[in-house]
Design goal:
Blueprint lengths: L17 E5 L9 H17 L5 E4 L3 H5 L4 E7 L4 H12 L3 E8 L1 H7 L11 H15 L6 H20 L8 E6 L10 H10 L4 E8 L2 E2 L10 H6 L2 H9 L5 E7 L8 H9 L3 E3 L5 E5 L4 H17 L4 E5 L13 H19 L4 E6 L5 H6 L3 H6 L5 E6 L4 H11 L3 H4 L3 E5 L9 H13 L4 E5 L3 H11 L8
Helix pairs in contact: 3-4, 6-18, 7-9, 11-12, 15-17
Length: 471
């Protein structure tokens, strides 16, 4: 009898009692990538806090849920009948289902719980919710005492690091505010007290796009937030007075985010919406359409004349990378930026024009028609803000070194740091490291994404000890 050893057979890894279900078939095709990023973010939060969980797709759901105790169901908006049956079976044998972000009514009914968490919730909110659910549903999967001890150690180390840093005179410390409502909807003064106390110099506040305006616009449709809370740009500017924090109106250019279905249909009929490479309609808009460009230019002109903003901050000022592009695609985008520059100088002399841009150049010229170094060279923008949303030090260092290789451009760059972006989740130590690398590259400052509870509770308190310390 002979035996042949061909190599060690890997042992199957035991299944975790906790599973994060990524929506694939249970969401529209155009939403799959975004749903996957939310699922990955959920798994990352659990892993960072010592909780073992498995990530599974929603295809063979009954098999994926076998032997589990807790399932986090991420954006299950269009479940199949087989998925509904699998969830009911899992729930019937005592499994706990917690829908996240959004879910179909039948999923909510089976889970016995409405979807928890919103996309704009900070990492700390998400972390607390997920850990509390793990602690309640799966005894032993998370040790609160050990976790709290580690948190105290990490806080002490971050504070020591923060105090070892030094401020730099004249440096821009910007923050993106994605909701357009501030940290505390209906209370902008409280938000500005936080910003001022933590050494923030500039706020990019998201106030408008092709499909919405949080202020009294006669060009763009006024948003639900405007109806509920009133003119948010006016309230923001009034609260900013005397704080030293400059307010920049963040305008989403070629993306119809927050547009309701009626406006999306109207944009489709006008030929403004782009199709992706597979021919499916998207919410991205066509920069080559002169009527669309003029509408956005008019809205910016209206805003700048009516509100004493310190600047206008352009976002999505590019093509959709997943859509076919005509010859000279970059020219259409540059023409738009040039027109905004001219109108802004007439409407509000002295106001800054900045733009959030993709990090990789020159690849972004081909991929999205965004030649932002050329905008700097032609003085079409005061500052470009590349979204350097990466976690690994080597990758970030390579990006900023390349961006700052031409010194006359480096002084016109504000380095974007993805503290809680979909692409990156950073600790206070990582943020400190990235700010110092941006300084070495000669940048005018940094912009942190995004103003949320994580930034306020975990990052800014460290930065204000040194890097953002005020005289």
């Amino acid at each position: 009898m002979f035996s042949v050893v061909c190599g060690a057979v890997p042992r199957p890894q035991p299944r975790s009692r906790i599973v994060v279900v990524k929506a694939v078939t249970a969401v529209p095709v155009v939403e799959r990538a975004y749903a996957a990023s939310l699922a990955d973010g959920t798994l990352r939060i659990l892993a960072q806090n010592g909780v073992k969980a498995d990530l599974v797709a929603d295809g063979a759901l009954e098999a994926a849920l076998a032997g589990r105790d807790l399932a986090f169901l991420v954006t299950c908006t269009k479940p199949t009948s087989a998925q509904v049956a699998a969830l009911a079976l899992f729930r019937g044998r005592g499994g706990v289902i917690r829908p996240l972000y959004s879910a179909a009514p039948q999923v909510v009914s089976i889970a016995g719980a409405k979807p928890a968490l919103k996309v704009r919730d900070g990492e700390r909110v998400k972390e607390r919710y997920l850990l509390n659910q793990v602690g309640a549903a799966v005894p032993g999967a998370w040790n609160r005492t050990v976790w709290e001890r580690k948190q105290r150690v990490m806080l002490a180390a971050a504070s020591t690091l923060g105090r070892a840093q030094r401020p730099r005179a004249g440096e821009i410390h910007a923050v993106w505010e994605h909701s357009g409502l501030g940290l505390y909807p209906g209370d902008w003064p409280r938000t500005f007290r936080v910003l001022r106390a933590n050494g923030v110099t500039d706020l990019f506040v998201n106030v408008s796009g092709a499909g919405f305006a949080h202020y009294a616009s006669g060009v763009l449709p006024r948003s639900k937030e405007y109806a509920r809370y009133g003119d948010q740009l006016d309230a923001c500017l009034k609260a900013a007075r005397g704080t030293g924090v400059r307010v920049h109106a963040w305008v989403i250019c070629f993306n119809a985010t927050r547009a309701d279905s009626a406006y999306l249909l109207a944009f489709q009929k006008k030929g403004w919406r782009l199709k992706n490479n597979q021919g499916a309609l998207t919410e991205y808009l066509n920069p080559s359409n002169a009527d669309l460009r003029w509408r956005m230019i008019k809205s910016i002109d209206e805003l700048a004349r009516a509100y004493p903003v310190a600047g206008v901050h352009l976002d999505f000022v590019r093509w959709y990378e997943g859509a076919p592009k005509p010859p000279g695609a970059a020219r259409h985008v540059t023409t738009f930026v040039e027109s905004v520059r001219k109108r802004l100088r007439l409407a509000r002399p002295g106001a800054l024009l900045t733009a959030a841009v993709l990090a990789d150049h020159p690849s972004c010229v081909t991929s999205v028609g965004q030649d932002w170094p050329a905008w700097i060279d032609a003085d079409l923008v005061d500052y470009a803000v590349p979204m350097n949303y990466v976690e690994k030090r080597a990758r970030y260092a390579a990006l900023v070194a390349k961006q700052g290789s031409v010194k006359t451009r480096a002084s016109r760059i504000i380095g974007g740091i993805g503290v809680t972006a979909n692409e990156s989740k950073l600790s206070a130590a990582q943020v400190v490291e990235q700010i110092n690398l941006a300084r070495q590259a000669g940048f005018a400052g940094v912009a942190l994404f995004d103003l949320d509870d994580t930034l306020v509770e975990s990052i800014l308190p460290v930065l204000r000890l040194g890097l953002f310390r005020q005289p």
